[in-house]
Design a protein that fits this description.
GO molecular function, one term: metal ion binding
Oligomer: single chain
Keywords: Calcium, Disulfide bond, Heme, Iron, Metal-binding, Oxidoreductase, Peroxidase, Signal
Number of strands: 0
Protein name: peroxidase
Distance between the termini: 18 Å
Number of helices: 9
Bound molecules: protoporphyrin IX containing FE, 2-acetamido-2-deoxy-beta-D-glucopyranose
Radius of gyration: 16 Å
Pfam families: peroxidase
CATH architecture of one domain: Orthogonal Bundle
Catalytic activity: 2 a phenolic donor + H2O2 = 2 a phenolic radical donor + 2 H2O
Length: 211
């Protein structure tokens, strides 16, 4: 379903909804009081200028990629917080999230996140978390597709493990009914209003009664 992606490109109303979505997402990702917008200002002053051109070139190749990256951030954040766990490949000690039901054959853009991380490592080796890279990439994607800009709070720590079961159970499904969607979002401190805004209204049949 490309509803959100295509509405990002065409409808300013939907853009506004996506804007709201991102702002809520941002607050979800930064509920920890230790996060701050200047977290890397001394340790990686060129962080933002390392990230943006890589996002730009990916979007130049395919505009949809910006939407795909935003979705990666959402799917990362819903499983044990915004900790980069979605980015981990399966290992001998765990089966990760990439091939969980909500992600298999649909989560995309991992190679773009890898390229961004490489650029960041070149600028500031061993400093910036993958979770923060994803959070910045989701913001830059939104801006580059014509959405709003916001300051990303930073300082997330990366997960060292991941759980396919947790991803299966935590990311809402397209077959979820409205009550299930509401409670899934409530569990993360997100209101019904946040749910509607974050989901862009158009993307799920069970939300259409709010339109
Ligand atoms: C409320 C529960 C949600 C459900 C059940 C849901 C479900 C889905 C499904 C089934 C797809 C299509 C995947 C495919 O065909 O490969 C999709 C696409 C997408 N979703 Fe959601 N979604 C939800 C909320 C959100 C939220 C909160 C965001 C971001 C703020 C988001 C962003 C996207 C984007 C950008 C796409 C298109 C991705 C691409 O083209 O690569 N979704 N969603
Ligand atoms: C996650 O869901 C998929 C698809 O339904 C299933 O094949 C897989 O076994 C589930 N993983 C776990 C750990 O429950």
């Amino acid at each position: 379903m490309l509803a959100l992606a295509s509405s990002m490109a065409s409808l300013s109303f939907s853009r506004a909804i996506v804007a709201l979505a991102i702002l809520v997402m941002l607050s979800l990702g930064s509920s920890d009081a230790q996060l701050s917008t200047d977290f890397y200002s001394k340790s990686c002053p060129n962080l933002f200028s390392a990230v943006k051109p890589v996002v730009q070139s990916a979007i130049n190749k395919e505009a949809r990629m910006g939407a795909s990256i935003l979705r990666l951030f959402f799917h990362d954040c819903f499983v044990n917080g915004c900790d980069g766990s979605l980015l981990l490949d399966d290992t001998s000690s765990f089966t990760g999230e990439k091939n969980a039901a909500p992600n298999q054959n649909s989560a995309r853009g991992f190679e773009v996140i890898d390229s961004i991380k490489s650029a960041v490592e070149k600028a500031c080796p061993g400093v910036v978390s993958c979770a923060d890279v994803l959070a910045i990439a989701a913001r830059d994607s939104t801006v580059l597709l014509g959405g709003p800009k916001w300051d990303v709070k930073l300082g997330r720590r990366d997960a060292r493990t991941a759980s396919q079961a947790a991803a299966n159970n935590s990311i809402p499904r397209p077959t979820s009914n409205l009550n299930q969607l509401i409670s899934r979002f409530n569990a993360l401190g997100l209101s019904t209003r946040d749910l509607v805004a974050l989901s862009g209204l158009l993307h799920l049949p069970s939300l259409s009664s709010f339109v």
